[in-house]
Design goal:
The structure holds two protein chains of two kinds.
Chain A (H helix, E strand, L loop, with lengths): L1 H29 L8 E5 L5 E2 L5 E6 L9 E5 L12 E3 L2 E8 L6 E10 L5 E10 L2
Parallel strand pairs in A: 2-8
Antiparallel strand pairs in A: 1-3, 3-6, 4-7, 5-6, 7-8
Chain B lengths: L1 H22 L5 E2 L2 E2 L14 E12 L8 E13 L4 E14 L5 E4 L3 E11 L4 E10 L15 E11 L13 E12 L3 E5 L5 E5 L3 E10 L1 H8 L11 E12 L8 E11 L3 E10 L9 E9 H4 L10
Antiparallel strand pairs in B: 1-2, 3-4, 3-17, 4-5, 5-6, 5-7, 7-8, 8-9, 9-10, 10-13, 11-12, 13-14, 14-15, 15-16, 16-17
The chains are: A alpha+beta, B mainly beta.
Chain lengths: ~130, ~325
């Protein structure tokens, strides 16, 4: 009898501990606000070879961006900036930014970006794309 | 006058915003490289992170003193940045030992504490390095699960290197990264002498142990974001296949060859947490035992609580 009571008490204490742990994890999840902004996808696609020159480069991130401190530029094979320096956020999607391009001759181009997410974490990166003749 | 005040306030606000990103540099980044937390070997960076839980199970081989035993470990590890480059950590490990033909033993292994200082980071080279000391706190665990009555101090160096600086001709190798740690575990007592009921003494030696751990990982997020969008989507675009090696070698007072495990596995890294699963395979006959498994849930506290628990204290 005593041992069965002890077993019940132990089981009950384990359940309480499990509930406490579950509540803690739930609290962690529900308080999640923002995180590092990773590049989700881009147009032109990362590493793509395109046969017609794109009129803009647009990047979509995994988080909302802070427009003032997020940057985007495109350079040619000589390292010269070729975009129109008119980076702007997508008014309908705060996680996307874009910059327009003049007609680009065939060649290799590199996109450099820096993203500041709402939680003040900074990420940065670059990738290339090729305009084929 | 009012306009001047506003301008000053705006300037202060702008300065605060500019400073904030520097303060918020965070877990496991060197340039565009994100190093995930590896479950079997220590990370080369300091961070605000919580591993809850790490569960591993493996059947250990029989020894002269003990039968083959299935060991299940459930542990929790918490690390906290004091400054952006200096952090402390705490760990607890609950063990369940099931020896063949014997009674199951359960209890806490010794608790551990550690400090780590990140002294080098090169964003362009995706390189990072830290030094630290781990303290296995003697007598804080339960002897029935083998917790030692003495402490062990392990100074160690930790390094991480991504291969994003490889030339275009090797661009598909750029998602590779390696992390590693080398440490030297020094027990606070060289030996323990015990006496049986007839008064005969037996001496157990406690050797210094060289510990070596490293991980080779291939980041699919890196491939997708910086090399070539190959069309991977959720959940595959957040996966990092890896192989970890967790090795140790007693170097004196009973020196012996390396033992350890090789752990092939997979990490899925999300916005605020990651999951890891690995097989745990003994590297040689001397290690013994069967293949086991490891599973970990890991939280990025700097993403979950960027303005409180997840930022450096100073």
């Amino acid at each position: 009898m005593t041992s069965s009571r002890a077993a019940l008490a132990s089981r009950s204490s384990r359940r309480r501990a499990a509930r406490f742990l579950a509540a803690g994890l739930l609290a962690l999840f529900t308080q999640a606000a923002a995180a590092h902004a990773f590049l989700d996808h881009a147009s032109p696609r990362v590493g793509a070879v395109v046969h017609s020159a794109p009129s803009e480069v647009k990047l979509w991130f995994t988080e909302k961006l802070e427009p003032a401190f997020s940057t985007l530029r495109v350079v040619d094979g000589d390292g010269k900036q070729v975009d129109r320096k008119d980076k702007q956020m997508d008014p309908k999607d705060p996680s996307a930014m874009q910059v327009s391009l003049p007609p680009l001759p065939p060649g290799s181009y590199r996109v450099y970006w820096r993203a500041l997410s709402a939680d003040t974490h900074v990420t940065e990166g670059d990738f290339s794309f090729v305009v084929a003749p | 006058m009012k306009k001047q005040c506003l301008t000053r306030l705006q300037a202060m606000g702008l300065a605060a915003c500019l400073l904030a990103p520097a303060l918020a540099s965070a877990h496991g980044f060197a340039g565009k490289r994100f190093f995930p937390a590896t479950p079997a070997t220590d990370d080369p960076f300091v961070a605000d992170e919580l591993s809850l839980p790490t569960i591993s199970q493996r059947k250990l081989g029989a020894t002269d003193d003990a039968p083959a035993t299935t060991e299940r470990s459930t542990s929790i590890d918490f690390t906290k940045r004091i400054t952006s480059d200096f952090g402390v950590g705490f760990g607890a490990n609950y063990l369940r030992l099931a020896p063949e033909g014997g009674d199951v033993q359960k209890g806490f292994d010794n608790f551990s504490a550690n400090v780590k200082y990140q002294f080098y980071k090169n964003d362009a080279r995706e390189a990072i390095a830290s030094v630290g000391v781990d303290w296995d706190i003697g007598g804080s665990g339960q002897s029935k699960v083998g917790a030692e009555s003495f402490s062990t101090w392990t100074p160690a160096i930790f390094v991480g290197k991504g291969f994003g600086d490889l030339p275009d001709s090797a661009k598909y190798l750029r998602p590779f990264a390696v992390t590693g740690t080398a440490g030297y575990a020094i027990p606070s007592r060289n030996s323990t002498t015990t006496f049986d009921e007839d008064g005969n003494a037996s001496v157990e030696q406690h050797p210094d142990v060289f510990k070596l751990g490293f991980a080779i990982e291939y980041s699919l997020p890196y491939l997708q974001s910086f090399v070539k969008d190959v069309g991977l989507r959720e959940p595959f675009n957040k996966m990092i296949p890896l192989v970890e090696f967790d090795l140790q070698k007693p170097v004196n007072r009973g020196a012996a060859p390396f033992t350890g495990t090789v752990n092939p596995g997979l990490i899925w890294a999300g916005r605020t947490m990651q999951f890891a699963v690995e097989a745990v395979i003994p590297i040689n006959n001397r290690t013994g035992g069967d293949t086991g498994f490891l599973f970990q849930v890991h939280f990025f506290l700097d993403d979950l609580f960027p303005r409180s628990l997840g930022k450096p204290i100073f």
